[in-house]
Write a structure and sequence with these properties.
Radius of gyration: 18 Å
CATH architecture: 3-Layer(aba) Sandwich
EC number: 2.7.1.15
Family: Belongs to the carbohydrate kinase PfkB family. Ribokinase subfamily.
Strand content: 15-25%
Order of helices and strands: EEEHEEHEEEHEHEHEHHEEEHH
Catalytic activity: D-ribose + ATP = D-ribose 5-phosphate + ADP + H(+)
Subcellular location: Cytoplasm
Number of helices: 9
Subunit structure: Homodimer.
Number of strands: 14
Strand order of the largest sheet: 4-1-9-10-11-12-13-14
CATH class: Alpha Beta
Largest sheet: 8 strands, mixed
Structural class: alpha/beta
Helix content: 25-40%
Length: 294
């Protein structure tokens, strides 16, 4: 039986500290207690997709250490299939160092560890076994680009669909960009692939329409203003509900995971974006990158 949703991406141990404000270069600040939790964009999005009703298969790598075991336990108990995750003895589980200011904004530094050692041939072999017509492959860029591109080609070859969250932003080959359905970006990531800057929803829609000439569909997230989407024949804007912002760390991943859960279930792009905006709005109301257990 083919998988409806495969998530290829990173898995990290997150170390988060709350500060009154973010430090300036060269400045030392005192913060609150360190909170240790499971994270990583790939793992976050897989768990968000599971919470949204999907049954995702996670493809990634962790170290043979306490962080890796905690990650597998957290994902498995959250409804994610972790049977294909690589467990490496020669690299530690990735680490993310996160500071969150009192207004909910964050800064993040990632040490990739095992994430940077994913084997493209092994990933392609797993996708070849699991993917079929209608399979959605979700990936981000906290794992090697060569692995992402090989996986995308494999899933499209099986009749599936590629969703790429261009985070962290970097140059990607036109061949990979052309497979994205959708490409998911925020404002700065949109600029990284050539979109013009914008200051409002109409500008974001114009940027999305310019990008869709280079890929199959596009979503641009707008934080508190929701998201815009565009495909060949249609485009639109989904406004976000007004909520109290506690921590923005997991909002983007919650959005993307919910979008892909809907797409894997056969939803139209507009409906998937609506679900993603709702999930992102919920995510800013808790601390940490992954949602609390229900």
């Amino acid at each position: 039986m083919s998988a409806s949703l495969i998530v290829l991406g990173s898995a990290n141990t997150d170390y988060t500290v709350v500060v009154d404000r973010h430090p300036q270069p060269g400045e030392t600040l005192l913060g609150g207690d360190v909170v240790v939790a499971t994270g990583g964009k790939g793992a976050n999005q897989a768990l968000a997709a599971a919470r949204a009703g999907a049954m995702p298969v996670f493809l990634g790598a962790v170290g043979d250490d306490a962080g890796g075991r905690a990650m597998l336990d957290a994902l498995g108990s959250g409804g994610v299939d972790v049977s294909s995750v690589a467990r490496l003895t020669d690299a530690p589980t990735g680490v993310a160092l996160i500071t969150v200011s009192r207004d909910g904004e964050n800064t993040i530094v990632v040490a990739p560890g095992a994430n940077g050692r994913l084997d493209a041939d092994a990933v392609v072999a797993t996708i070849t076994d699991l993917a079929g017509p209608g399979t959605v492959l979700l990936s981000q860029l906290e794992v090697p680009l060569t692995v992402v591109q090989a996986a995308a080609l494999a899933v499209v070859g099986a009749g599936g669909r590629v969703v790429l969250n261009l985070s962290p932003a970097r140059d990607i080959p036109d061949e990979l960009l052309g497979l994205c359905d959708p490409l998911v970006v925020n404002e700065s990531e949109a600029r990284a692939v050539g979109a013009a800057s914008f200051a409002d929803v109409e500008g974001a829609l114009a940027a999305a329409r310019s990008l869709v000439t280079r890929c199959r569909s596009v979503i641009i997230t707008l934080g508190g203003d929701g998201a815009v989407w565009c495909e060949a024949e249609a485009s639109g804007h989904v406004a976000a509900p007004r909520v109290e912002v506690v921590d923005t760390t997991g909002a983007g991943d919650a959005f993307v995971g919910a979008v892909c859960a809907e797409l894997a279930d056969g939803a139209a792009l507009a409906d998937a974006v609506t679900a993603g905006v709702r999930s992102g709005a919920a995510a800013v109301q808790w601390r940490g990158a992954q949602p609390p257990a229900r």
